[in-house]
Amino acid sequence: SPIKREEFVQVLYNAEGKPAISIANPFPDVADGGWYKNAVLWAKQNDIASGKGNGNFGVGENISRQDLAMMLYKYAKLNGYSLAATEGLINQFADGANVASYAKTAMDWAVTNGIMSGKGAAGAPLGSFRLDPTGIATRAECAAMLKNFKTAFEG
């Protein structure tokens, strides 16, 4: 099943030990009593998620694979992990050109560090694999990416 934007930032917030929040709520769609409120505000405070172009965070919306990569990239930056990436690596994938301009660096980073490897048949050439950047990230994909992130940066 898909993972929602607020669920993903809750996972990251939990991993950080649920630190204190020091900003006011800028998002009209983040309810004062919402279980996710502190996680969303923490993500905003730490530049992990800035919300949508309409001023909302996007509560209840499924997270795309490129947005998940972007948030993980910013989370890595927050924690001082390497942001080294092979520029243009995403272009080796069948749909690499479909990655939004704002997410290209993060997607290159995710592929470079083995966090995201694409979708395709085992043993098939890389050029036939898809990153599916605008596709909805499933809980299983999220778990795999988090495991790969942990392996890449925390051993």
Question: How would you describe what is shown here?
Answer:
By secondary structure, the chain is mostly helical. The mean pLDDT is 95. It is globular. The chain has helices at residues 5-15, 37-45, 65-78, 104-112, 139-154. The protein is 38% helix and 0% strand. The two termini are 28 Å apart. The protein has 5 helices and no strands.
Radius of gyration: 15 Å
Query: What low-confidence regions span 5 or more consecutive residues with pLDDT below 50?
Result: none
**Proportion of helical residues:** 25-40%
Give me the number of helical elements.
Answer: 5
| Beta-strand fraction estimate | under 5%
Mean pLDDT, to the nearest integer, reads 95
Question: Which overall shape is indicated by the principal axes computed on the Cα atoms?
Answer: globular
Query: Helix and strand string, N-terminal first?
Result: HHHHH
How many strands? 0
Coarse structural class: mainly alpha
Could you give a short account of the major beta sheet? Answer: none
| Span of the ends, CA to CA | 28 Å
